[in-house]
Structure formats: C-alpha cells, structure tokens
C-alpha cells in the first residue's frame, strides 16, 4: 500500500525555498544524474566533506541536514513526526520535490540507508540507491544478528541522556576504528558533540528500534550495499541480509575498517559509487 506523505503545508505551503532553507540544502558541481548524500544520526552534512568534492567533479551533488541536525531550522522540529524514520523519509521526498530532481541516486549512510529505502517507496524521482554501513534492523532477532540486544540499546540511550559529551567521546573512536587517525577521531567526536543532545537521542531511538526487513522486497531499484570489512555498528550478516532481500541489491566490501568510510577511505567510496553509476540500467 502506498505511503501517504505527511506534508507540512502549515509551515511551508508551496514555498520550495522555505523547505530548502529549513534543511540547509547545499549543492556542488553540475551534471547528471544528480546525487543526494544523506548523513546518519549524530552527524550532519559536513560528514561528506571528503567525499562530496570527489563526486561533484563530474556531476551535481546535493547535501542537506536531517531536521534537528546540523544547520537545519530547529523551529520545524516535531518530536512526533520524527519518532520513526517515516518523518525523515517524508522530508526526503519534500526536498526532492522542492528541487524538482529526476533520476536521482541517493547515497545514504547508516540509518539513512533505510531512510533512502523508505523514500524510494514514496516517489518515482529516485532511480538508484547506495547504502553505506546500513542495516534493516539493529536488534538481534530469532535467526537474525543485528548486533544489539535490547539492553545494549537501553544502555546506549541512557548514556546519551546522562552524559552526552562522554557518550560522544567514547563512541567516536569505537565506530571509526582507526586508532592511527586521531585527527579523524577528533573530527567525528566534535561532530557528535555539536548536535542537540535530546534530538540526537530521539534520532538514535528511532534508528535502533526500527525494523525495515518487511519492506525490503518492495524496493524495485538497483541498490549497491557498501560494507567495511569490520563495523562496530553493523555486522556483516546484517549487510548480507539487506543485500540479499533487496530484489536489485548487491553487496560490495570495502577494504577499510569502521562505520565511517566517508572519513577514513573516501577514495574507495568514490570509486565504488562511480562504478555503480557507470553500470547500464535495465
């Protein structure tokens, strides 16, 4: 059944510029097909600072901040709307509509892989998906390894609430997994720390309690699933389930570690994305 997009007519009406301003939309380069890069929870569009310039050398690249993140307008944040990933997917469609984009390739990192998937079920503006370190479900289930038990998630959310700065400093080196790059650890930690603590905790809750396995089979698009050789957030088995249950899915391993290859190995990501874009579409 098609999803009914919840539009914010009372806030934006038909004002496309207002939608773009609310999400701090930023563009680089020119050329088709357009790429839209979506960041995960706890970060913002600056997480693409090493990858976006490489991709924009040949085509138009669009970045924006999820509502509540980065330079988005917090005046439009609604806790009820963003209690699940659906609100973020609705926002994605609104941004694509406001820019009147066609034949879009979405590049979604972490939870934005699933936001991209939900967006693809809402609009025909999207042609292909690239998911980086994405998971259809983070909680373990019978016959499924998501990587986390409910108690793990409760502890994770509790730490965010009690000591957000400490949570950020502890999480960054673990998920980056590059002890030889303290500069990147510091950059990621700073990215976490400058986020609004309560909104980030709510985004984390919507992320870790989501389960999108039942809709994977409904996605008609080619999907490239990119996975690092080791990832503290997403086990390889979850990436395999994701790619295996997407009708047009394919898993490609990246010869790097950690949950943030766009920081640690942007050249590998750029090459993988360019190869995918060069493939003929059926």
TrEMBL record:
<comment type="similarity">
    <text>Belongs to the AB hydrolase superfamily.</text>
</comment>
<keyword id="KW-0378">Hydrolase</keyword>
<protein>
    <submittedName>
        <fullName>Alpha/beta fold hydrolase</fullName>
    </submittedName>
</protein>
<dbReference type="Pfam" id="PF00561">
    <property type="entry name" value="Abhydrolase_1"/>
</dbReference>
<feature type="domain" description="AB hydrolase-1">
    <location>
        <begin position="33"/>
        <end position="263"/>
    </location>
</feature>
<dbReference type="InterPro" id="IPR029058">
    <property type="entry name" value="AB_hydrolase_fold"/>
</dbReference>
<dbReference type="InterPro" id="IPR000073">
    <property type="entry name" value="AB_hydrolase_1"/>
</dbReference>
<dbReference type="GO" id="GO:0016787">
    <property type="term" value="F:hydrolase activity"/>
</dbReference>
